[in-house]
Design goal:
This protein has 164 residues and is an all-beta fold. Helices cover 0% and strands 40% of the residues. The chain is built from no helices and 13 strands. The strands form four sheets. A four-stranded antiparallel β-sheet has the order 4-5-6-7, with no helix packed on it. A four-stranded antiparallel β-sheet has the order 8-9-10-11, with no helix packed on it. Strands 1-2-3 form a three-stranded antiparallel β-sheet, with no helix packed on it. The chain is globular, with a radius of gyration of 15 Å. The chain starts with 7 loop residues before the first strand and ends with a strand.
Length: 164
C-alpha cells in the first residue's frame, strides 16, 4: 500500500509493477520490464510522497517517482544475487535496507532523495540525469545463508532485524 495514497496498492508480477486504485478500480500507474528478471520487492518512501524503490533478481535497486516513470531516478547494482527485501527507515527516509540471497544486508544512503533534501519541496522531483546515487553506508555480512526478511524497529530508529 502507498502510505501517501491509501486507496492505492502495488502488485509485482515477473518484471512488472502495477498500482491499482481501489476507489476507481483502475490502474493508477504501471511499469514494465523494470528489472532484467523478476521484481522481488517494492517499498514506498514513508515521508516523501511519490517516491518508491524496487529490487529484483538482477541484484539492482531502482528509485522511482510516480510522476515521471519513463526512467528511474537512480539504479545501482546493490547485490551479487537476487534481492529479497527492501525497506525504508520509517524515521530517517534517507536510509534504505536491502537483503539478498548473497547473504548480505546493505544499508544505503539516499540523502538526495529524502524528505530532508532541498529538492523535496520542488515540484516535480529532480530528474534522473541529476546526481541521485545510492551510497552504501554499511555491508552486514554476518549471515551464513540468504537473508529472507527485513524489518525496522517501530520504537528505535537505528534497530532492524534480518532473519535468514
Amino acid at each position: 500500500w502507498d502510505p501517501h495514497s491509501p486507496t492505492q496498492f502495488a502488485v509485482l508480477q515477473n518484471s512488472h509493477v502495477v498500482s491499482f486504485d481501489t476507489n476507481s478500480g483502475n490502474v493508477a500507474w504501471s511499469l514494465s520490464s523494470i528489472h532484467h528478471q523478476q521484481v522481488r520487492d517494492i517499498d514506498f518512501n514513508p515521508n516523501r510522497r511519490h517516491i518508491f524503490s524496487t529490487a529484483g533478481d538482477d541484484g539492482r535497486i531502482s528509485v522511482w517517482d510516480v510522476r515521471s516513470l519513463n526512467e528511474p531516478l537512480t539504479t545501482t547494482q546493490a547485490h551479487n544475487h537476487w534481492i529479497w527485501n527492501l525497506k525504508y527507515n520509517p524515521f530517517h527516509d534517507q536510509l534504505l535496507l536491502s537483503s539478498s540471497a548473497d547473504n548480505h544486508v546493505n544499508l544505503w544512503d539516499l540523502s538526495s532523495l529524502s524528505s530532508s533534501a532541498k529538492s523535496a519541496k520542488a515540484e516535480p522531483i529532480a530528474h534522473a540525469n541529476e546526481n541521485h546515487n545510492l551510497k552504501i553506508v554499511k555491508d552486514y555480512d554476518d549471515h551464513e545463508d540468504s537473508v529472507y526478511g527485513l524489518a525496522w524497529s517501530a520504537a528505535h530508529p537505528w534497530v532492524f532485524a534480518s532473519p535468514s
